[in-house]
Each structure stands twice: as C-alpha cells, then as structure tokens.
Automatic annotation (TrEMBL):
One of its GO terms (biological process) is purine nucleobase biosynthetic process. This is Phosphoribosylamine--glycine ligase. Belongs to the GARS family. Gene3D superfamilies: 3.40.50.20, ATP-grasp fold, A domain (3.30.1490.20), ATP-grasp fold, B domain (3.30.470.20), Phosphoribosylglycinamide synthetase, C-terminal domain (3.90.600.10). Its cofactor is Mn(2+); Mg(2+). GO terms for molecular function: ATP binding; metal ion binding; phosphoribosylamine-glycine ligase activity. It holds the Pfam family GARS_A.
Amino acid sequence: MNVLVIGSGGREHALAWKLKQSPLADRVFVAPGNAGTAQDAENVPISEKDFAGLIRFAKANRVGLTVVGPEAPLAEGIVDAFRAEKLRIFGPTKAAAELEASKVFCKQLLRSADVPTADFQIFSDPASARRYLMEKEDMPLVVKADGLAAGKGVIVCDNREQALQAIRLIAEEKAFGSAGDRLVIEERLHGEEASVLAITDGKTIVTLQPAQDHKPAYDGDTGPNTGGMGAYSPAPVVSDEALHWIEANILVPTVHAMRKAGRPFTGVLYAGLMMTPLGPRVLEFNVRFGDPECQPLMMRLKSDLLEILNLAVDGQLDQLESLEWDPRPAVCVVMASEGYPGSYQKGFPIRGLDEAARLPDVKVFHAGTALKDGEIVTAGGRVLGVTALGENIARAKYQAYAAVKCIRWQGAWCRKDIADKAIRRLTQQNV
C-alpha cells in the first residue's frame, strides 16, 4: 500500500518514519515534507493547503491511505474533500475537527457531556470581557483565543492586569488574527500537565501511553508559550489507575457526545489535561497527534502503525490486538532557532546530524529544515526533535542531550530540563 502523510513538521517525520517500517507499506510520500522526511520517505512538493493537488496526487499514485498531520487542513475539511473522492484518509471531518478549531465549541461540548474541565465564560467582544474581569475578584485566570493559533493562543495570567493585557492582545490587537474574534476566560487550574492521546474509529477507543509536553519556552516552565519545546513518554504523573479513569470519564463521554451531536469523531483524540489535586481536568482537546509528543510515542510504539490506522479508517478498531510498547521511556528535546517563538532567521547550515544519528537509540526528527544546494539548513522556529530511548527516564534524557550536543548551527538553543519533572517524581516515589 502507498501512504501519503500531509504536513512538514517533526510529527510528520515521526509518522512517516514509523509508517515506513510497516510490512504493509510500499511507498511513503510526505507533502510537502522537510529535509528529514526526504531521507526516510519521498517528499512531494504540494502544500498542505492545496487539497485539489493532494487529491490528484493520491489518485495518480494509487495512495491507499492518507494520514493528516497538522490541525489546519483538518479544520478546513481535507477529510471531507478526500472522502468525497472515495479516497481513504485518517482524521476527523471538518465538523468533528471543531473540537480543536474552536475553544468555544470544545468548552460547550465538555459542559454538556459533564466532562471535568475548568469553569469558563465566553465573550464575543473585548468590552464585555473587560467588564467581567472588573466585576470579578482578582485571581489567576487563563485567556484563550477561540480559533487556531499554532499553539500560542492561550495566555496564562497571574492576575487581573495580565488578563486585561491578554484581552487587548487577542481581541483588539488581533495578535492571532480572526482566531481572537471570540474569547474564552476560564479559571486557572493548578497541577502538572499531561497529554493522553487515543485513536478512535468513533466506536472503539485505543488509548496510547501518556506523555508530557513542555509548552513554555524556557527552563522551569517560564517564558512565552510555544508549539512545544520537548516531550517524554510515559509520564509518571498519569498512573495506570488514572489512565483508566481518563478513558472512562473523559475520552468515552467525549466520543459519545460528538456522535450524539451529529459529528462522529474518527482519528486522534488528544486530551490536554491538568492533573489537579481533585483529579484530571481537560484543558483542551486536539484532533491530531501532538507535536512533539508524537516523536517519543512513535519511538516507543512497537505495534504496526499502518495496521492500526487502516483499522480505524475502516471502523474495525475492535479487531485490534492490544498495543505493544517498548518498556523503555523516550525523551524528545526540541532544538529551536534563535528568537523563537518570536521572529527568527532561516537558512543556517546544520552541522553534526550524522554524528548524532550514530549514537545508539537516538533518532533526530526534522521539523523546520530544508535542503539548499545539497545542504540541510534551518527553515523554521522549531528545527529538530532530538529523541532517544533509555533504560529509565534519566538515561533517555542523558542520551537525548548527548545527541543535542553533537548538533550545531548559528543561534541554536533548547530547554535543558526536558523530563526533569518525571525524574523528580520517580525519585520521590522511590525514597
């Protein structure tokens, strides 16, 4: 079977790399891909926005399954477009993708399904949002743009003044464009964040091992939010007991509520959770594999990903045997361009990739890279996802950072504390 992966980031590189390992896979194409996918698969110079071009390519190259990486084409209805042409594609329809594309829709669905989440209010203009804040006691809050904002439309505020600034940025200065036409203001939850992803065909749910992303730019979870500066799996903050509870009280009711709402959900349901003292609470839902969570998950998954996705598309996930995982943890460290998540320069040559690749149990997934005159250069804010397995989380971290040290380009930087929370938690448990 020929497979087409849509997207150009680290998640898409990890998916293409994993799909290529399947005995069911013949050719694996990535559109448009990056310098890394060019090595592990075949790049196709078609934008993820060009649905007609992607459909023509899928037909001409007898693509048996298309896998959508990013959220934007899902929100724009790429699954509906492919299905209309009788092409098999993994992901939610446009109506179902609104679970991520609209924070307002997501919060309203959670409330109607009685899924635990933070208390919230919705506003369609900045004046009413400001009025609400002035009438409310001064307290920590979170201000969210309703629409898609590349992982940056959520502003965590310590007090009223910061929340007022967030309203100004999102709703008046339109820092995230039309995504800020509506606002969600919610109570700020406290605890440790975790990501629980599941693959579903709308009836059966197959939950993956828990992971933890690191959204803030700098060490100690400080600085502005980014698309994610690193991740690891499994996440010890989610016990086996907690994972079963999340399945029963969050994932199952959400899939049921989506079906009841006439928006049956197929694809990846990704619950971004806060593990509070009162139990798990949903911060948000995404409707695709997380980036960078996908990288450590694909490193650890021993089952055939293509078989899993085929069964999901055909509505036959109930036939899947239980997933097999490498018991070793995996850690992914994102190497970024100087200036990210603000403005940054592109085009710097990247050195040391071959040296890093020679380290055992290491895979360097490319995100913002391109080929220029036969040389791999930087082409984005998040450039690489350096991922490693280890006998324990500390060894996996050590190996990932050993690979990071091999790689260099002008202005390269990364967080130094990816997975430290897990190491601390496990140390405390063993004391």
